[in-house]
Specification:
By secondary structure, the protein is an all-alpha fold. Helices cover 70% and strands 0% of the residues.
Length: 209
């Protein structure tokens, strides 16, 4: 059995256990038993239970985040279109998180567990997408399409707003409230980056998708 397959079995085991019990009640021994491998073997791949959880979150959102990160090199596409695609990647990964959380909640996962998983998800989402979004903003600045002095800060602010609002875990809101927030974010982006009003209107469509 290859190392990759063994690590996948470990992640699959934790995924299944999360649908059955709370995070606090899952031990490395439980994961090893579920994966049908020795406990010592787990530490060959992961230093701790927390590291296994981080890897599971990374795997669950790998596809939309990989798509978003690849956009930084596609300079033939306008920065605004790529920003829209980044927002949609956030939306896709958010939907994946919500679907998983709803399934887990039905299996008895506590609100504390859901909040803990959401925090890890947010950290992963922002850390993975911030460099790509910053690079796209920098490219827009270099081309004269965007005017802003702090591209990295802007990227982080956008991602924090999206991660919080789209997941609806920390701040419960209706779909209409979330759409209003996204439209407000778009308006602030237009004003703050000194581009014509309405240029980014189509970005708000991601709130409806």
């Amino acid at each position: 059995m290859t190392n990759e397959k063994k690590s996948d079995r470990i992640l699959d085991a934790l995924q299944q256990l999360l649908e059955e019990r709370t995070i606090q009640n899952i031990s490395v021994s439980d994961i090893a038993k579920k994966a049908e491998i020795g406990k010592g073997s787990i530490y060959y791949y992961f230093p701790s239970k927390d590291a296994i959880l981080d890897a599971l979150i990374e795997r669950n959102y790998e596809t939309p985040l990989k798509t978003a990160k690849n956009l930084a090199s596609q300079t033939e596409i306008s920065p605004f279109t790529r920003m829209a695609m980044i927002l949609q990647a956030c939306r896709s990964s958010s939907s994946a998180f919500l679907n998983q959380s709803n399934t887990a909640s039905g299996a008895g996962t506590s609100a504390q567990d859901t909040a803990f998983l959401h925090q890890k998800y947010m950290n992963h989402l922002i850390a993975e997408l911030k460099p790509s979004l910053t690079e796209i903003i920098n490219q827009g600045i270099a081309a004269g399409d965007i005017h802003f002095e702090y591209p990295a800060a802007l990227a982080e602010i956008v991602l924090i707003v999206l991660a919080v609002k789209l997941n609806n875990t920390f701040l419960s809101a209706t779909a209409e409230d979330s759409e209003d927030t996204i439209r407000g974010l778009v308006a602030l982006l237009e004003k703050g980056t000194d581009i014509p009003r309405g240029t980014l209107n189509y970005l708000s469509l991601t709130a409806d998708m």
